[in-house]
Amino acid sequence: MKRLLLWLGLLAGALAVHALLGLWLTGLPLWLATAVTLLPFALLARRLEATPYRQQLRALSSMIAGWRDSDFALSISAPDSPELDHLTRELNAVGTLLRRERHSLVQRELLLQTVIQSSPMAVMLCDSDGHIVLANVKARQWFGRQGQLEGHTLAEASSALPPSLQSALEKDGESMCTLGQEPDLDTFHVSRTRFELNGQAHYLILVRPMTRELNRREAAVWKKVIRLMSHEINNSLAPISSLAHSGRTLANQHGVPSLDRVFDTIESRARHLNDFIAGYARFAKLPPPQPEAVDLRSFLTPLCGALDCQLDMPAAGQHGWFDPAQLEQVLINLVKNALEAGSESGDISVHWLSDPAGDVLEVRDRGQGMAADSMERALLPFYSTKRSGSGLGLALAREIMEAHEGYIDIRPREGGGTVVSLCFERANPDNASAINR
């Protein structure tokens, strides 16, 4: 480029000298001939000098216009002109900073969307007119809508809900709402907060299921009571057993065999009470589950063989995500309950069911079944329909399932008997941290 300009300059100089000589020979004064000759070249040089500036300024203008349209990808090469070089470099640096900030903002927005959509709470954002502008997956499930909630009014979306819940959704502040009947009550915490967004009033509505949390707190209270009772009773049982043994020894030494029956009864009842308290202590000291990927065939086949019950064989290679030791204890208790309910071992079957919502392990029997009121109370600690029952088998099963972020369901079986379902969320090792909390 510079060589081309040099040759053009030489050519222009030669033409200028030639024109100057021609004008001077025609009789014009030398200064006038010189001015007439050099003026076009001076104007041409000025234009050539200004052209790179115009091009660079035009490029910078295009880059700034792209910023206005949120396009920060364009950058400009630095010119040869020192006057524009600094400005170009600074604007390129600003563009790079804006590009990074935009990328960071997009990533934060994606993270926020992921958190909102995966939240166990129903989350909705409404404008001042009551129209829903944002709703997560849980909100759509909760309102029983498969499609989008956005665009509908809150009144339309909640029209099928109980009146008490509709009232809680429309009331500012926080409130608790209870639905259903004893003992199958569902409790919800409803929060409605007003705030300004882009100068407009909006309402953030959060609906949080509290039933499981309340059940956990209730179980924690039961466990504390059991630990206190176990401590006090064990402190009393130890001297009773010791005194009974000493009394038997003294009675034998003095030849009073009639007291043997008395001491046998005392020792027998003390052992029974000790075993009874030990069962409650196991419930109170249930450790957190240690879930792992479990091959279902390898887990269920020997267990069902030992329990002498039927197995609806899962597909080969199918896995569940649970604590195998705790789930084994649950299955043993359920099969034991089925046998005590009068079911033949051959009529007891274990089934593993899978669908996109989660996995279900069912125990089905042909026993005498349960009355409706007994079925409603079956999961409560200390409730039992058997004279010698502790009321801990199903309560322990419920505690274990809730520790796995699942639940237990009991229903009558068609044709007689009972079906107990252990319902898990979709098996996923990523849930391990949540389960272990």
From TrEMBL:
One of its GO terms (molecular function) is ATP binding. Pfam families: HATPase_c (PF02518), PAS_4 (PF08448). Its EC number is 2.7.13.3. Keywords: ATP-binding, Nucleotide-binding. It comes from the Bacteria. CDD domains: HATPase (cd00075), PAS (cd00130). The keyword Nucleotide-binding applies. Gene3D superfamilies: Histidine kinase-like ATPase, C-terminal domain, PAS domain. PROSITE patterns: HIS_KIN (PS50109). Residues 228-428 form the Histidine kinase domain. The keyword ATP-binding applies. It catalyses: ATP + protein L-histidine = ADP + protein N-phospho-L-histidine. This is histidine kinase. The lineage of its organism: Bacteria, Pseudomonadati, Pseudomonadota, Gammaproteobacteria, Cellvibrionales.
